[in-house]
Every structure is written in structure tokens, then in C-alpha cells.
Amino acid sequence: MLTLKKDIIIAIDGYSSCGKSTLAKSLAGILKYTYIDSGAMYRAVTLYGLRNNYVRTGFVDTDKMIQNISNVKIEFRLNEETLRNELWLNGENVEDEIRGMEVANNVSPVSTIAEVRKRMVFLQQEMGKNKSIVMDGRDIGTVVFPEAELKFFVTADVDVRAQRRYKEFKEKNIPITIEEIKENIGQRDHIDATRKESPLRRAEDAVILDNSNLSREGQLEWAINYIKEHFSS
Ligand code: DC
To answer: Which of 24, 128, 186, 188 is most exposed, with minimal Cβ within 10 Å?
Structure first.
């Protein structure tokens, strides 16, 4: 375990599928901090929309999403076996379902809706009230926690990202081509970085971490060294 001089908030932002959550989970484990995957929250809202027909491929009924956003109850509950936080939507564990391609293909348009963002940011800020949290996403260092003590901005080459995601899908026996993954990543990057509401961008005080040529372990080691240097007691 690594002990810091004081409790801090660690904000990790970056493009889709570039290893933010892997890094965030590991750091939270080492620091004994809470890990919050903010993308899972937008994915859960999207699943809610898909199930209620407010979202279909290429279409989002923005008014219906806004009218019903207060009916979307999101909780993270600890899985005692894996010791990971899992997402529950209105009392149902949807951790696996929100990782599928149907949600991945529709989540970016849903997350452009200002009212959806406002609600998620409120919930995220509540979770960070006591600090000791690692949160990853797109706007954590810029909008959710602009005062976070430590901000990482993670990037990686798009081909490297697609290869990594392809391997994960293959391990789960999900049939998909690398081209489909690349297209999804490219589309999400584009929508996330160009949307009007809280676009993905690096906070001025965020440290850039390009992990194209780093293994998971290499990336973690780099981040731990950075933390030791700046925050360790
Ligand atoms: O991190 P992820 O790929 O699971 O996120 C899914 C989508 O949610 C992503 O394409 C954009 C959106 N998102 C967002 O707009 N703001 C965040 N803080 C996190 C995710």
C-alpha cells in the first residue's frame, strides 16, 4: 500500500479504450481509494434509453430522455468476490450488459445531452465529497473535479487501442471484427471531443500519459512513480 501526505482526488481523462479504467482501478487498489467509472454511468443511462425505446441505433429521443432522467437510479455496489464496484440500474446488476456493443454504439450521442450530463456530474461530485477517490472519464479533470489534486490525461494510438479491445472481446468469445471496433472508437472519439457540452479535452494542469508503447504494468509503474514523487509522505 502507498500512503499519501493527504487524501486527494485523482481524475483520469482520455480517449475511448486507452486504458484509463485499468490504470484507475489499479491505483485505487494500491491507495485503498474508491474507484468510480463515470463512463459506466453514461452507459447505464443509455441502456435505460434502449430498453424504453428512447434510444435506437442512430436515433435519440432527447425530450423523453430528459423527462425520464430522474427515473434512472444508478448505484455502484461492491462485488464481494471480485472486490470491484459494479453498476446497478434501478436495482438490477447491469455491469455486463453495459459493456456490450449495442450500448457502446449509442452512448456517445446520449452523453451529449446537457441534462443527462448535469445529473451525472451532480452524482459524481457527491461521490467525491470525502476525497480518496479515483474517477475516470472524459470531463473529470475539467468539469467534475476541476480542483482535483492530480489529473492524468491518457492517450494511445488508435490502432493500439483497437487491438487491445479486440483481444478483450475475443477472450469473452464476442464475435466482432477489428474494423468494427476501430470504427466505434473513432466515432466515439469524434463525438466526445467535438460535442458542445463538456467536450473531452485535457485540463491545463493534467499530466499527459501516452501509453501506446507501455504495458499495463509499465503504465502503472509510471503513474506510481509520479504519485510518489509528488504526493507521498
Ligand atoms: O469510458 P467509457 O468508454 O466507458 O465511456 C462511455 C461513453 O460515455 C463515452 O463514449 C463518452 C461518455 N462519457 C462522457 O461523456 N463523460 C464521462 N465522464 C465519461 C464517459
So the answer is: 186
Strand partners, 56: 59
Mean pLDDT of 148-159: 97
117 lines ligand 1 (CB under 6 A): no
Q: What is the 111 CA–ligand 1 centroid distance (Å)?
A: 7
Domain of residue 178, residue span: 9-227
Structure confidence at residue 57 (pLDDT): 87
Does residue 42 line the site of ligand 1, with CB under 6 A? yes
Rounded-to-integer distance, Cα 107 and Cα 62, Å: 13
- CB contact set of 12 (below 8 Å; sequence gap of 6+): 20, 23, 24, 134, 135, 136, 137, 140, 141, 151, 152, 154
Q: Could you tell me which of 35, 26, 14 has the C-alpha nearest to residue 220? A: 26
Q: Which atom of ligand 1 is nearest to the CA of 112?
A: 15
Q: Would the CB of 138 count as within 6 Å of ligand 1?
A: yes
Task: For the chain, state the CA radius of gyration.
Answer: 17
pLDDT in tens, 4-60: 999 999 999 999 999 999 999 999 999 999 999 999 999 999 999 999 999 998 899
Write down the pTM of the prediction: 0.94
- 232 assigned to some structural domain: no
- Which residue has its alpha carbon closest to ligand 1 atom 20? 39
Tally of domains in the chain: 1
pLDDT tens digits for 174-215? 899 999 999 999 999 999 999 999 999 999 999 999 999 999
In a domain, 27, yes or no: yes
